[in-house]
Give the backbone structure.
Amino acid sequence: MGTRRAGTLTPQSRAAMLRCLQNDAGFSLVETPLVVLCVCLLCLILLQPVVTCYTRLCLGQVAGELARIVATDPAGADNDAQTRYKVWAADRLTGLPEGSAFRVAGSLQLQVQGDPGADTVKVTLSLRQKPLPLVGLFGGHASGDTVEVSASALSTGAQHAVEGSPATAPQTYGKD
């Protein structure tokens, strides 16, 4: 056998290296961080619409309840009614998680159209929330901007549902 120079490959080591280069076993290790990063970014982007939809769903539920309460309120439309309704709505919205992504503190707005006992009562609730940082960048919002989320509910015919009193309604007890 002759002398080998340093850095040259034998035919056996060259064949082993070619087999390693043609094998696909190591490629998934390189691609995994890229796939994980894309999945995490996609989850963050999809999180903001979920948060906004949940907030709007809660606002709609509270607005519907409040519209029924306003329509059947025996106290009437006194000076404290708007304050009472807003306090009640804020109390019902305590189910929303704390944090500016769901609601900015003190941003709840209430608008009531129609008086107690009216045929139609419309309640609109709105609040402000900060977009998540990643969505804010893509949506063109600055770091301090907020987005308004609102929901409305309409109560119709509440007076007719309450009108029937025992004195005017026909009463039937037992068989004739």
In short: Strands lie at 109-113, 120-129, 147-156. The first helix runs from residue 11 to 22. The mean pLDDT is 76. The chain is about 45% helix and 15% strand.
